[in-house]
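A reminder from the course coordinator: this example appears on the midterm review sheet, so study it carefully.

Given structure:
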């Protein structure tokens, strides 16, 4: 199985200079081992929006997309699309083909809301099939902003509105059931630009 190399530093530098926002691979690179433990966060009542309306229940559609909220109510993701294909997405500007008897599963997500903190993508996300088998991603990338927009070596975060893409390879005879999405939640930046009070978290994205 060939792994996709997704980070082009020269292109990223241009994006940073033009827009202050880039896209990077999840920490740890492609195909890293990781077993998520979804729902290990401490539960808390879900906050409402500015008008007092509660956020959508997990899997409930808002603006035509299923939304999923973390156990503490501080982070909300939308499932933009789920595609099964044998063609590598052209917009990723790389080439790959699935192994014989396998398909690509392409999952597109958007960060809808972050309350009282910041998040950053990390390795460890995995896809679960209808037999309970876990699969590590072969590609994971998220839109990010840099702590110092003029220095691509500075720390990053994925802000509200950032989009992410994860790609997996699954056998043709199984169905994807859910994504155990891993991310890092941190409360603030230090004066030196380091993440403070960070914690690894997980959320289940249930496929329709």
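Designed residues:
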């Amino acid at each position: 199985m060939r792994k996709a190399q997704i980070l082009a530093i020269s292109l990223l530098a241009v994006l940073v200079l033009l827009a202050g926002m880039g896209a990077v691979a999840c920490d740890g690179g492609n195909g890293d081992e990781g077993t998520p433990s979804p729902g290990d966060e401490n539960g808390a009542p879900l906050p409402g929006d500015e008008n007092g309306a509660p956020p959508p229940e997990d899997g409930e559609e808002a603006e035509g997309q299923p939304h999923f909220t973390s156990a503490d109510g501080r982070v909300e993701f939308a499932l933009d699309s789920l595609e099964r294909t044998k063609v590598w997405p052209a917009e990723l500007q790389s080439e790959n083909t699935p192994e014989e008897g396998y398909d690509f599963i392409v999952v597109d997500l958007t960060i809808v809301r972050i309350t009282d903190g910041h998040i950053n993508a990390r390795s460890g996300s995995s896809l679960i099939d209808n037999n309970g088998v876990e699969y590590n991603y072969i590609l994971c990338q998220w839109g990010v902003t840099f702590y110092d927009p003029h220095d691509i070596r500075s720390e990053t975060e994925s802000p509200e509105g950032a989009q992410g893409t994860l790609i997996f390879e699954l056998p043709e005879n199984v169905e994807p059931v859910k994504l155990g999405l891993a991310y890092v939640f941190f409360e603030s930046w230090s004066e030196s630009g380091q993440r403070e009070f960070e914690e690894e978290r997980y959320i289940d994205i249930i496929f329709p």
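Confidence is low (pLDDT under 50) at residues 1-20, 28-53. The chain has one domain: 9-34+60-206.
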